[in-house]
User: Which sequence fits this backbone?
């Protein structure tokens, strides 16, 4: 009974891709109005008005795009919405502004040096808007035919017939194209364009010849003329690529040799110089325009002194993006040295930063955030349960109470309840320990754990030895 | 005839490599702007079998070969990987295959009767247009050779026929053009070609 049969595993599920819910997926923006005044609850943001107003100002600066190499530090205790503010900024900037988000420890890799990883992150955050010629297929859909194999498994095969006023062509479709056609709900009578290089499908509207089929047509249906001439056309499109992408394109070994060399790893500085010169040339000719983006480094105290001095230098370049860091440390040791410094960042770098600080949430703010998270996770919760959860959040941490939402919801589902009640909260509260209760528990049963016979000698653990 | 001179001058300036293989003289040109041109001639008859171009995209990536004359060998593995949408093999296939005296295009898989096709010449845009009465096929194309030397087109040189499901379009080369081709092939036969298979290898 425990091992599922083969047919169970191979079951094909034909549903639209489920969105996964992340820790910050409820954030849709910074929640500020046009005059940069933060609203109490808006776009998934709650409280932290001062920090959000400051972030709004920075946002204006980024949008203007004139100032390069400014750096911002978001400092605050754990669980006060530092990452949320950065995410909100990314959302507010929109799709066209490059936003790179990395964690401080990501740059430590055996494959490339720390400075290379940082340079790549910097260059990922600078966009270039440039015109390029691409090949597109534009026509009216005559017929889509998708055949599923009789066994129910294996690759599907599809055929798409497109026409213009002058010609008609049958195309064979691959797996991905079939998927995106079904996702876009393309049907006969639609006028579509397909970008040959990327495979992106755009629906332009419905053909005028189909204007008389009244069935199943919304009021916003757009009618367009069937295209003329050839199906395949060359078209100039403007798109944004990052400097890093151009680097990769130009540094890749050509042909089958690429299979052996692999395309990750370091990019030669000559290639970068060449590209910088090229971009400058394009800018002068008016062919391209630079879109400065944002580089966000979370847990910035994980960087070491070498990285910080590199950053000092890198921020002076006129190609530098706006640089946002976040940290939850107070005065601590700078990694790679024996010196103490605020936020674990050297004073000379701190001097260049605009510092935004976040403060712990109030009780009613915690309640709001929990409510938003309930909505995000599709959880029905009674008012009393929410009050209890808020209290837990206030006494332990916001993150812990957010975790309880999911588990409590599962508990209520198991007892076939319609909404999460106080009992469900109580149940999961006893099942899962928060950080404080867990250390309490450890102190109580310390002797029973492994290696407890070794008494710690460091000064920081003095308290524990006293307790036992 | 400055157009012809310009083109010959451009070919002279390009970096050239020559190779004799399978009864073909293969020449590879690299122009100063990194554009590549590859040509293959029949050694016996001097006919041009393949001419293809490879350009760099604006961002610097190498684009696939574009065939001006001749046809790519079908490579099913590569084809399925790079693109998720391809023309069905039953669609008309358009290729150019020149003879010594004329430019010639063949469009295969044209299953309709002969009176279905028109071939016209658009003198202003210097291009040929293939149309079908039943609206199944349409193609507008230029003769790049004539464009390069800046020569106009003449509808008197154009003829077409349909047989065995293939539409053959023929455009007679003007005498100036034939002379130029003779000149180029004479020049090319002078360049030293390395023979395939006897590459020197000195194991030390």
Assistant:
């Amino acid at each position: 009974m425990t091992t599922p049969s083969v047919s169970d595993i191979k079951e094909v599920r034909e549903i639209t891709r489920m969105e996964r819910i992340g820790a910050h997926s409820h954030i849709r923006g910074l929640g500020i109005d046009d005059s940069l005044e933060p609203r109490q609850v808006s776009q998934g943001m709650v409280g932290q008005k001062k920090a959000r107003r400051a972030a709004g100002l920075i946002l204006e600066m980024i949008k203007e795009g004139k100032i390069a190499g400014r750096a911002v530090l978001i400092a605050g205790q754990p669980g006060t919405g530092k990452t949320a503010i950065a995410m909100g900024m990314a959302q507010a900037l929109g799709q066209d502004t490059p936003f790179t988000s990395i964690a401080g420890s990501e740059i430590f890799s055996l494959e490339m040096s720390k400075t290379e990883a940082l340079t790549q992150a910097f260059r990922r955050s600078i966009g270039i808007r440039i015109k390029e010629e691409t090949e597109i297929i534009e026509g009216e859909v005559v017929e889509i035919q998708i055949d599923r194999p009789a066994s129910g498994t294996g690759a599907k095969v599809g055929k798409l017939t497109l026409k213009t006023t002058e010609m008609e062509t049958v195309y064979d479709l691959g797996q991905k194209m079939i998927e995106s056609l079904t996702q876009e709900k393309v049907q006969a009578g639609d006028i579509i364009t397909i970008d040959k290089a990327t495979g992106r499908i755009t629906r332009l509207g419905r053909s005028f010849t189909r204007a008389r089929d009244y069935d199943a047509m919304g009021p916003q249906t757009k009618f367009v003329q069937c295209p003329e001439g050839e199906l395949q056309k060359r078209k100039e499109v403007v798109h944004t690529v990052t400097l890093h992408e151009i680097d990769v394109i130009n540094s890749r070994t050509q042909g089958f040799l690429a299979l052996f060399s692999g395309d990750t790893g370091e990019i030669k500085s000559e290639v970068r110089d060449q590209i910088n010169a090229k971009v400058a040339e394009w800018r002068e000719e008016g062919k391209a325009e630079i879109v400065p983006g944002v580089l966000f480094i979370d847990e910035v105290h994980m960087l070491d002194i070498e990285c910080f001095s590199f950053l000092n230098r890198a921020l002076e370049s006129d190609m530098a993006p706006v640089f946002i860091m976040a940290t939850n440390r107070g005065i601590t040791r700078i990694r790679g040295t024996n010196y103490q410094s605020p936020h674990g960042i050297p004073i000379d770098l701190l001097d260049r930063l605009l510092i935004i600080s976040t403060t712990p949430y109030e009780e009613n703010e915690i309640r709001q955030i929990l409510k938003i998270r309930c909505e995000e996770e599709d959880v029905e919760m009674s008012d009393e349960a929410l009050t209890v959860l808020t209290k837990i959040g206030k006494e332990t941490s916001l993150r812990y109470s957010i975790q309880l939402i999911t588990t409590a919801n599962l508990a209520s589902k198991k007892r076939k309840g319609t909404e999460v009640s106080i009992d469900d909260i109580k149940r999961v509260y006893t099942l899962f320990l928060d950080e404080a209760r867990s250390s309490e528990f450890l102190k109580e049963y310390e002797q029973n754990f492994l290696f407890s016979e070794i008494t710690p000698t460091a000064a920081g653990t003095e308290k524990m030895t006293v307790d036992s | 005839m400055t157009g012809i001179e310009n083109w010959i001058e451009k070919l002279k300036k390009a970096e050239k490599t020559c190779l004799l293989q399978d009864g073909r003289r293969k020449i590879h040109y690299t122009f100063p702007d990194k554009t590549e041109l590859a040509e293959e001639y029949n050694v016996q008859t001097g006919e041009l079998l393949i001419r293809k171009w490879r350009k760099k995209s604006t961002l610097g990536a190498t684009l696939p070969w574009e065939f001006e004359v001749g046809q790519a060998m079908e490579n099913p593995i590569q084809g399925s990987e790079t693109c998720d949408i391809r023309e069905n093999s039953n669609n008309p296939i358009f290729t150019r295959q020149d003879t010594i005296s004329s430019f010639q295009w063949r469009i295969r898989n044209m299953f309709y009767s002969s009176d279905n096709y028109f071939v016209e010449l658009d003198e202003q845009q210097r291009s040929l247009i293939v149309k079908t009465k039943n609206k199944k096929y349409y193609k507008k194309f230029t003769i790049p050779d004539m464009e390069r030397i800046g020569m106009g087109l003449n509808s008197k040189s154009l003829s077409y026929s349909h047989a065995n499901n293939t539409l053959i379009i023929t455009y007679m080369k003007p005498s100036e053009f034939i002379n130029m081709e003779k000149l180029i092939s004479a020049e090319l036969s002078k360049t030293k070609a390395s023979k395939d298979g006897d590459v020197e290898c000195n194991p030390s």
Q: What stands out?
A: The two ends of chain A are 48 Å apart (CA to CA). The longest strand of chain A covers residues 126-147. Chain A touches chain B through 35 residues (CB under 8 Å).
